Amino acid sequence: MQVTIRVIGIGPGDPRQITLQAIDAMAGVDVFLALEKGDAKDGLLQARRDILEHHAPQGYSLVEIPDPPRERRPADYDAEVRRWHAARAELLARAILADVPDDGVAAFLVWGDPALYDSTLRIVDDLAARDDLQVSVEVIPGVTSASALTAAHGIVANRVGEPIHITTGRRLADTPPGADANQIVMLDADLGFRHTAAADDEIWWGAYLGTPDEILISGRVGDVTDEIVEARAAARARIGWIMDIYLLRAAR
Q: Do 102 and 64 belong together in one domain?
């Protein structure tokens, strides 16, 4: 079976940040595929539906696929992620074979940009390696959560001449010397800066960027850490999920 797969970046949450290229890419899609993550994150799925209502002029078919379970604190993190991606690819392949016409177009709507800490393109690689699918891939970039964060705070991501290091909360403690001047940290469920940053370091934190639930906090780490912890916990309890990111800047 031949299929074109479009991986469409839709930005971090503000519908106005969806690019014209992304809107054009939604036209002509036969089936949109979405991994359903349970009731707690149904708001994310509904946001995709709302986007399609506005930007899929041909009407749309959305196939929702239950996301396979994943061990969050495995002994071998890389192996568990590979196993999880393979399980996702298998479920998605079944959906494509069942619901997408031969020589048709399937698409994923990806939060932010598909190239920045998102697994969709790796899963598409797994699909392309299958014997029962001949896959052509089109990637449409999106506004990143990193750029949305700096825009929301009205700041530049780095001081003059300094590097920017993009990492995850899991790897924050492994930041090499010299790379810690300006760190953009994603996927940090434990707010790792509490254990790595100095009190005089600066932080710009944001959650639900570009949505009506957006929260922004900034200041010295020593002054605003408790505020961030409390705001994050309250928002997660109220909404059921959280998407946040922060810029951590070492004090001079």
A: yes
What average pLDDT does this structure show over 45-72? 85
Other residues' Cβ atoms within 10 Å of the Cβ of residue 97: 14
The helix (H) or strand (E) run that includes residue 23 is helix 20-26
What is the maximum span of the chain, computed from C-alpha positions, in angstroms? 59
CA dihedral 142, 66, 43, 34 (to 10 degrees): 30
Give Cβ neighbours of residue 230 (< 8 Å, ≥ 6 apart): none
**3-class DSSP state of 12:** coil
**Which two structure tokens, joined as six digits, stand for 90?**
């298998």
Which helix (H) or strand (E) segment is 65 a member of? strand 62-66
User: What DSSP line would sit under 21-43, residue for residue?
Assistant: HHHHHHTT-SEEEEEE--GGGHH
186-222 confidence digits (pLDDT tens):
999 999 999 999 999 999 999 999 888 999 999 999 9
**What CATH number has the domain bearing residue 34?**
3.40.1010.10
Name the pLDDT band for 39 (thresholds 50, 70, 90).
Answer: low
CA 238 to chain centre: 21
| pTM score of the predicted model | 0.90
If asked whether residues 156 and 43 sit together in one domain, one would say no
From 237, 238, 217, select the one nearest 227 (Cα to Cα). Answer: 217
Question: What integer pLDDT is reported at residue 14 of this predicted model?
Answer: 85
